What we know:
The complex is a heterodimer. Chain A is mainly β. Helices cover 0% and strands 49% of the residues of chain A. In chain A, the strands form two sheets. In chain A, strands 2, 4, 5, 6, 9, 10 and 11 form a seven-stranded mixed sheet that branches. A four-stranded antiparallel sheet of chain A has the order 1-3-8-7, with no helix packed on it. Chain B is built from no helices and eleven strands. In chain B, the strands form three sheets. In chain B, strands 2, 5, 6, 9, 10 and 11 form a six-stranded mixed sheet that branches. Chain B is globular and about 40 Å long. Chain B starts with a strand and ends with a strand. Chain A binds chain B through residues 31, 33, 35, 40-45, 48, 50, 56, 58-59, 90, 92, 94, 96-97, 99, 102-105, 107-110, and chain B through 6, 9, 32, 34, 43-46, 49, 51-52, 86, 90, 92, 95, 97-105.
Amino acid sequence: xxxxxxxxxxxxxxxxxxLTVTCSQNMNHEYMSWYRQDPGLGLRQIYxxxxxxxxxxxxxxxxxxxxxxxKRNFPLILESPSPNQTSLYFCASSFRSGRVLGNEQFxxxxxxxxxx
Amino acid sequence: xxxxTQPEKLLSVFKGAPVELKCNYSYSGxxxxxxxxxxxxxxxxxxxxxxxxxSIKGFTADLNKxxxxxxxxxxxAQEEDSAMYYCALSGLGGGATNKLIFGTGxxxxxxx
Lengths: 116, 112
Protein backbone atom coordinates (compact mmCIF):
# COMPACT_ATOMS: atom_id res chain seq x y z
CA UNK A 1 0.00 0.00 0.00
CA UNK A 2 1.30 3.42 -0.99
CA UNK A 3 1.68 5.48 2.12
CA UNK A 4 3.65 7.82 4.35
CA UNK A 5 4.55 6.44 7.77
CA UNK A 6 5.71 8.28 10.85
CA UNK A 7 7.17 7.03 14.12
CA UNK A 8 6.48 7.40 16.91
CA UNK A 9 2.83 8.37 16.77
CA UNK A 10 2.88 9.74 20.31
CA UNK A 11 5.83 11.01 22.33
CA UNK A 12 6.15 12.67 25.70
CA UNK A 13 9.61 13.97 26.54
CA UNK A 14 11.37 16.52 28.70
CA UNK A 15 13.04 19.77 27.82
CA UNK A 16 16.48 19.35 26.30
CA UNK A 17 16.34 15.64 25.54
CA UNK A 18 17.19 15.11 21.88
CA LEU A 19 14.63 13.26 19.82
CA THR A 20 14.03 12.13 16.26
CA VAL A 21 10.72 11.60 14.51
CA THR A 22 11.07 9.35 11.50
CA CYS A 23 9.19 9.68 8.23
CA SER A 24 9.23 7.21 5.38
CA GLN A 25 7.39 6.99 2.06
CA ASN A 26 7.18 4.15 -0.45
CA MET A 27 5.93 6.09 -3.45
CA ASN A 28 9.33 7.12 -4.83
CA HIS A 29 8.46 10.78 -4.25
CA GLU A 30 11.21 13.31 -4.68
CA TYR A 31 9.64 15.95 -2.47
CA MET A 32 9.13 15.59 1.27
CA SER A 33 8.08 18.08 3.90
CA TRP A 34 7.40 18.51 7.61
CA TYR A 35 4.56 20.56 9.06
CA ARG A 36 3.37 21.37 12.53
CA GLN A 37 -0.27 21.86 13.31
CA ASP A 38 -1.31 24.14 16.14
CA PRO A 39 -4.80 25.31 17.15
CA GLY A 40 -5.71 28.55 15.45
CA LEU A 41 -2.56 28.52 13.33
CA GLY A 42 -3.29 25.70 10.92
CA LEU A 43 -0.39 23.88 9.32
CA ARG A 44 2.95 25.59 9.08
CA GLN A 45 5.87 24.23 7.12
CA ILE A 46 9.04 23.49 9.07
CA TYR A 47 11.43 22.12 6.45
CA UNK A 48 11.15 20.59 3.02
CA UNK A 49 13.35 18.60 0.68
CA UNK A 50 13.27 18.66 -3.09
CA UNK A 51 15.38 15.52 -3.38
CA UNK A 52 18.21 13.59 -1.72
CA UNK A 53 20.72 15.92 -0.06
CA UNK A 54 18.55 18.94 -0.91
CA UNK A 55 16.75 20.48 2.05
CA UNK A 56 15.47 23.98 2.74
CA UNK A 57 13.78 25.94 5.48
CA UNK A 58 10.07 26.42 5.62
CA UNK A 59 8.26 29.06 7.61
CA UNK A 60 9.11 27.88 11.14
CA UNK A 61 12.50 26.09 11.06
CA UNK A 62 13.92 27.32 14.37
CA UNK A 63 14.74 24.50 16.76
CA UNK A 64 14.51 21.77 14.12
CA UNK A 65 16.89 19.92 11.85
CA UNK A 66 16.29 17.50 9.02
CA UNK A 67 18.33 15.25 6.77
CA UNK A 68 17.66 13.53 3.48
CA UNK A 69 20.26 10.86 2.90
CA UNK A 70 17.87 8.48 1.18
CA LYS A 71 14.94 9.24 -1.05
CA ARG A 72 12.39 7.43 1.10
CA ASN A 73 13.34 8.84 4.52
CA PHE A 74 13.12 12.36 5.94
CA PRO A 75 13.67 12.41 9.71
CA LEU A 76 12.87 15.44 11.85
CA ILE A 77 15.38 16.09 14.62
CA LEU A 78 14.85 18.20 17.71
CA GLU A 79 18.29 18.66 19.24
CA SER A 80 17.05 20.37 22.41
CA PRO A 81 13.25 20.31 22.57
CA SER A 82 11.39 23.04 24.40
CA PRO A 83 7.76 23.23 25.56
CA ASN A 84 6.84 25.55 22.66
CA GLN A 85 7.55 22.65 20.33
CA THR A 86 4.63 20.73 21.78
CA SER A 87 2.51 20.17 18.70
CA LEU A 88 1.11 17.74 16.17
CA TYR A 89 3.62 17.03 13.42
CA PHE A 90 2.87 15.85 9.92
CA CYS A 91 5.20 14.53 7.28
CA ALA A 92 4.14 14.72 3.63
CA SER A 93 5.52 13.73 0.26
CA SER A 94 4.80 14.33 -3.40
CA PHE A 95 6.31 14.10 -6.82
CA ARG A 96 8.28 17.15 -7.79
CA SER A 97 6.25 19.89 -9.26
CA GLY A 98 5.19 20.00 -12.78
CA ARG A 99 2.14 21.84 -13.94
CA VAL A 100 0.40 18.58 -14.76
CA LEU A 101 0.97 17.01 -11.37
CA GLY A 102 -0.22 19.95 -9.39
CA ASN A 103 1.72 19.22 -6.23
CA GLU A 104 -0.75 16.90 -4.48
CA GLN A 105 0.85 16.00 -1.19
CA PHE A 106 0.31 12.74 0.67
CA UNK A 107 0.35 13.03 4.44
CA UNK A 108 1.44 10.75 7.21
CA UNK A 109 -0.81 10.00 10.21
CA UNK A 110 0.82 12.57 12.46
CA UNK A 111 3.02 12.51 15.56
CA UNK A 112 1.72 14.12 18.72
CA UNK A 113 4.68 15.49 20.68
CA UNK A 114 4.52 16.83 24.21
CA UNK A 115 7.59 18.50 25.70
CA UNK A 116 7.43 18.96 29.47
CA UNK B 1 3.72 37.91 0.62
CA UNK B 2 2.00 34.61 0.03
CA UNK B 3 -0.94 34.11 2.33
CA UNK B 4 -4.11 32.07 2.60
CA THR B 5 -6.99 33.35 4.70
CA GLN B 6 -9.91 31.32 5.94
CA PRO B 7 -12.02 33.77 7.93
CA GLU B 8 -14.26 31.23 9.65
CA LYS B 9 -12.91 28.94 12.34
CA LEU B 10 -16.21 27.12 12.64
CA LEU B 11 -19.14 26.75 10.28
CA SER B 12 -22.21 24.98 11.57
CA VAL B 13 -25.04 24.06 9.21
CA PHE B 14 -27.97 21.69 9.18
CA LYS B 15 -28.08 18.60 7.01
CA GLY B 16 -29.38 19.49 3.55
CA ALA B 17 -28.39 23.15 3.80
CA PRO B 18 -25.93 24.72 1.35
CA VAL B 19 -22.33 25.10 2.44
CA GLU B 20 -19.74 27.67 1.48
CA LEU B 21 -16.29 27.61 3.04
CA LYS B 22 -14.44 30.80 2.29
CA CYS B 23 -10.84 31.06 1.17
CA ASN B 24 -8.95 34.14 0.01
CA TYR B 25 -5.35 34.20 -1.06
CA SER B 26 -2.54 36.61 -1.66
CA TYR B 27 0.06 35.69 -4.27
CA SER B 28 1.78 37.73 -6.92
CA GLY B 29 2.33 34.94 -9.41
CA UNK B 30 0.08 32.28 -10.88
CA UNK B 31 -1.11 30.11 -7.98
CA UNK B 32 -2.43 26.64 -7.73
CA UNK B 33 -5.16 26.31 -5.14
CA UNK B 34 -6.24 23.23 -3.25
CA UNK B 35 -8.70 22.12 -0.65
CA UNK B 36 -7.50 19.51 1.82
CA UNK B 37 -9.81 17.77 4.29
CA UNK B 38 -9.13 16.07 7.60
CA UNK B 39 -11.88 13.81 8.88
CA UNK B 40 -11.88 12.80 12.53
CA UNK B 41 -8.97 10.46 13.27
CA UNK B 42 -7.90 10.35 9.64
CA UNK B 43 -5.01 11.76 7.67
CA UNK B 44 -5.10 15.03 5.90
CA UNK B 45 -6.01 14.31 2.30
CA UNK B 46 -6.55 16.20 -0.90
CA UNK B 47 -10.20 16.99 -1.64
CA UNK B 48 -9.87 18.92 -4.86
CA UNK B 49 -7.66 21.33 -6.79
CA UNK B 50 -8.62 24.14 -9.07
CA UNK B 51 -6.60 22.87 -12.00
CA UNK B 52 -8.76 19.74 -12.22
CA UNK B 53 -12.08 21.59 -12.29
CA UNK B 54 -13.76 18.53 -10.84
CA SER B 55 -16.47 17.88 -8.29
CA ILE B 56 -15.51 15.59 -5.43
CA LYS B 57 -18.13 14.31 -2.97
CA GLY B 58 -20.43 17.00 -4.29
CA PHE B 59 -17.98 19.80 -3.51
CA THR B 60 -16.82 22.31 -6.07
CA ALA B 61 -14.50 25.29 -5.93
CA ASP B 62 -13.91 27.95 -8.54
CA LEU B 63 -10.80 30.05 -8.67
CA ASN B 64 -11.73 33.73 -8.94
CA LYS B 65 -8.56 35.61 -9.76
CA UNK B 66 -10.29 38.97 -9.67
CA UNK B 67 -11.43 38.46 -6.09
CA UNK B 68 -8.43 36.21 -5.24
CA UNK B 69 -10.81 33.65 -3.81
CA UNK B 70 -11.25 29.90 -3.96
CA UNK B 71 -14.41 29.21 -1.97
CA UNK B 72 -15.55 25.63 -1.44
CA UNK B 73 -19.22 24.97 -2.05
CA UNK B 74 -21.71 22.17 -1.74
CA UNK B 75 -25.43 22.57 -2.40
CA UNK B 76 -26.65 20.07 0.20
CA ALA B 77 -24.52 19.25 3.23
CA GLN B 78 -24.35 15.74 4.63
CA GLU B 79 -23.41 14.70 8.15
CA GLU B 80 -20.38 12.84 6.81
CA ASP B 81 -19.03 16.14 5.49
CA SER B 82 -18.21 17.18 9.05
CA ALA B 83 -14.45 17.68 9.10
CA MET B 84 -11.68 20.26 9.17
CA TYR B 85 -11.12 21.87 5.80
CA TYR B 86 -7.91 23.59 4.79
CA CYS B 87 -7.40 25.80 1.80
CA ALA B 88 -3.84 25.71 0.45
CA LEU B 89 -1.81 27.56 -2.13
CA SER B 90 1.19 26.44 -4.13
CA GLY B 91 3.22 28.74 -6.28
CA LEU B 92 4.19 27.82 -9.82
CA GLY B 93 7.78 28.25 -10.77
CA GLY B 94 10.80 29.26 -8.77
CA GLY B 95 11.56 28.36 -5.18
CA ALA B 96 7.93 28.30 -4.11
CA THR B 97 6.91 25.64 -6.60
CA ASN B 98 6.64 22.82 -4.12
CA LYS B 99 5.73 24.84 -1.10
CA LEU B 100 2.22 24.51 0.19
CA ILE B 101 0.89 27.37 2.25
CA PHE B 102 -2.12 26.48 4.34
CA GLY B 103 -4.88 28.56 5.76
CA THR B 104 -5.81 28.16 9.40
CA GLY B 105 -8.67 25.82 8.60
CA UNK B 106 -12.44 25.82 9.00
CA UNK B 107 -14.23 23.22 11.04
CA UNK B 108 -17.44 22.24 9.31
CA UNK B 109 -20.09 20.78 11.60
CA UNK B 110 -23.18 19.40 9.91
CA UNK B 111 -26.05 18.99 12.35
CA UNK B 112 -28.71 16.32 11.79
